Amino acid sequence: MEISLIPTAEQISRESLINKSAVMFDILRASSTVCTALANGCQAVLPVSEVADALALAQSLPEQTCLLGGERGAVRLPGFHLGNSPSEYTRPVVQGKTIILTTTNGTRAIRLAAAGSGLVIIGSLLNVTATARALVAAGRDVALVCAGTRGQFSLEDTLAAGLVIRQLLKLLPSGEATAPAAAPASDGPYAEERPLYKGRPLVLTDAAMAALRLAEYYSANPLQALHDSLHGQKLVQLGLASDLAYCAQVDLLEVVPVYRQGKITLAGEAAVR
Amino acid sequence: MEISLIPTAEQISRESLINKSAVMFDILRASSTVCTALANGCQAVLPVSEVADALALAQSLPEQTCLLGGERGAVRLPGFHLGNSPSEYTRPVVQGKTIILTTTNGTRAIRLAAAGSGLVIIGSLLNVTATARALVAAGRDVALVCAGTRGQFSLEDTLAAGLVIRQLLKLLPSGEATAPAAAPASDGPYAEERPLYKGRPLVLTDAAMAALRLAEYYSANPLQALHDSLHGQKLVQLGLASDLAYCAQVDLLEVVPVYRQGKITLAGEAAVR
User: Fold this and answer.
1) Could you tell me if residue A139 is left (phi over 0), alpha (psi between -120 and 50 degrees) or otherwise beta?
2) Within a domain: residue A204?
3) Min Cα separation B92/chain A (Å)
4) What rounded mean pLDDT belongs to chain B?
5) What is the predicted pLDDT for the residue at A196?
6) Is residue A173 a part of any domain in this protein?
7) How far apart are CA B244 and CA B259, in angstroms?
8) Per mean pLDDT, which range of A18-27, A49-58, A109-118, B76-85 is the poorest?
9) Do B152 and A207 touch (CB under 8 A)?
């Protein structure tokens, strides 16, 4: 099993995702919002890249069951019911509803992450362990996709990816802690004695290894990473420090949001295999 | 002062370097080799991207004072005097010589890093503090350029960049530890209360912050990072574990190799301003 990390949505290619399970992270705040909405009984989230497309899609859906959510520049869009703060997506507001969501980075990244045709999970700090379990159940190579902030590497998304890797290594039957396999693999320049998973070497790319070490660095205080990040600092300036505190809660939720054919819904254990 | 990090040579753009001091890291092994050669009295290193160009350049220089060095696939090139192991670049071998060097990633990255027209330093773990001092003396924004391995993020180069950042923060008169300035800057969406350096806010991009945290994670044992990296593991497989041990020695050397007009030489304090 190979675990790779794609640092920004711009670096997604079909080759980097093909036949893999993908997880898309945009933890400040699109993926945290999606996880929260679905945990609170929302039927489905429809991620849309452009504001105009969101408005057009809303026209085609029954008004009573549909909500428009999203932001540009971290601020709610005019005419929308909801912004991009998970705190708005409470059970009384979202239960039974379909939410059309458009955000600066995250919704585009979700659609790009679907290029590989495999499983696409929406990951955040809120659902690290649930995400890792779903990846183990799927059994494929894993690509962790960080949305990034305006094309740049983002600290907080990389932290979330690293925490998922840490959890994966704990869950895999022969994780980092086990002894190398007796017979080294020999299928490539970098093959060597490594732990095996389902008969194949378990390989972390250097970017995945760096994310793992970052997760270990911040594991005692994930909120610190959100405050260290430039986007986190921007949200604090906008008076949204409480969103950082919410989004930093590792494993608050037991949800596995899965994107398929334009729609994010909750996956049962069977659905993610 | 802004400190940014470019994770791979492929991501270098003129815009990302213009008017900045750049440091190029390819610590396994090109930049460690350059630092070692110059510390051992080599006159100049001429980095060349292609093997054919290296051979042509050698023809044009006096045979007695010129050595050909370099690798492809981590192995010495046929007809070359030296490979890419710093252990070969001893004083008896290199003193007073000009070395033409061609390596898979590093030499190309050095030339690309020169796109910004400012100072270009060759950085490694061997010369972290000397590099940081030269950057402070230059006083410009800093771009830390990791060569990467075959277009991919490399753990060991990012560690070296992070250690330079850590040292920079120690050397700057108002580093991370100081209180925010009284008057917040207001010149951009991410501007906020930050430590000032020469009247300007000190800003780390998220990638630079991640490198800093990685450096803090590995600071007690930098060699571990080299063994965690895929390229480090490849070198170990090739029997070159001793090169990892050598390259992991933080601040072994007091050199600041500077690239200018096709040539790397040692910079005196005056020359790097």
Assistant:
1) left
2) yes
3) 34
4) 89
5) 58
6) yes
7) 24
8) A109-118
9) yes
